[in-house]
Each structure stands twice: as C-alpha cells, then as structure tokens.
Amino acid sequence: MYMDFSTVNPPTLIRTLFERAKAADEFEFCSTLLTLRGIENAVWDPQHESLELSHQLMSLQNAPLEQDFKLRLTLFLYCHLTEMSDIYNIPANMFHIISGERYSMIPFNIGLQQGQNPSTSPSGKVRKLKVLAEALNMQELGEVFEEMIVKEVRNAFYHSDYILTNESFNIRHGNGVVINGVRENRVPYGWLLPRLQLGI
Known about the structure:
Number of helices: 9
Order of helices and strands: HHHHHHHHEEEEEH
Number of strands: 5
Structural class: mainly alpha
Distance between the termini: 22 Å
Helix content: 55-70%
Strand order of the largest sheet: 1-2-5
Largest sheet: 3 strands, antiparallel
Strand content: 5-15%
C-alpha cells in the first residue's frame, strides 16, 4: 500500500520526531545534530560537501533549462542524497534517544545480537527505521522513509540502464518497480516524482 502524498506532511512528522528526542534528552539530541565523531577538523565532514552540491543543483532547478535536463538533475540529486549516511543515522539516533538510548556514531549497530550484521544499504536502513518508528507509535514517519527509497530507480540510474520518455522513467534491464501490486519497468512520473521529492 502506498502513501497518499496529499494527506501526509513529512516535515511535520520529522519535526515531531526531533521535538520528542529533544524532550527525552537534550544533550543526546544536540550530539546527534552535531553528528559528533571525535576530534577531526572541518575538511573531513562529507555532509558539508553534499549539502553544497544539493544547494547548487537545486538552484539550477529555477534556471531556464529543458525539462528533461531538470529531471536528470532531480534524479542525480535524489540518488546522491539517498546515499548519505546522515540521512539515516540522524533519525535512527532520534528514535534511539526517545527510547532511552544515547547518541551513537553507528546507530544501526544498537540492539544487534552477536553475529547479526548492521543494515548498510539504504533499503536495509529504511527497513530498520520503519521498525524503530513503529515501536514508538510513529508509523506514518516509518512509511515516509519507506516511500522515499525506490531502489530499482536508483539502481537503473546509477548503472545507466534507464530511458526517459515524456511520461515515464523506463528501466531497460533488471527489476521494475511494484506499483499497485504489479511490477512495472515503465515507472510513471506521476508516481515517481513525489518519491524523488520526498528523498530530496
């Protein structure tokens, strides 16, 4: 079942998560926002570079460019941002703080049994975020994370295995996307674009 984007407000859900974490433990909340990693100078913060690239690409969205080029920029930005560790680590830490845990540089290791491996892929991290959200009765936020990852589109884009048409993002090889219970290699923009924007 897919989210009704007309009734869900992701920024409000994220704000609620942050407010709950801050209320639970303001010190751990601030540690998460600062993404403390020990002693290092500023040139070792990849989040800064990603944010700079994001701002530069988003500024191009307002330029008089061809629509297909803007779509390619959107796909590139979406794929880049959904690879960032902090986009998953920060909410994971917020969920843990609400649950009484402390900030962790490796939040997906919290609660693992011996021999279990932490989630490392965006899809795996999103599955874990959904579990953490549901444990705190924040199911809608878990669904937001789930909806923002369309791994088949990310894979097709990264592997140059796609074709843009006027109506859809077509995946040439590999798995299509399950839409309304049917696996489609032709992904309509009406379905895809809200999910790209959600990731961005």
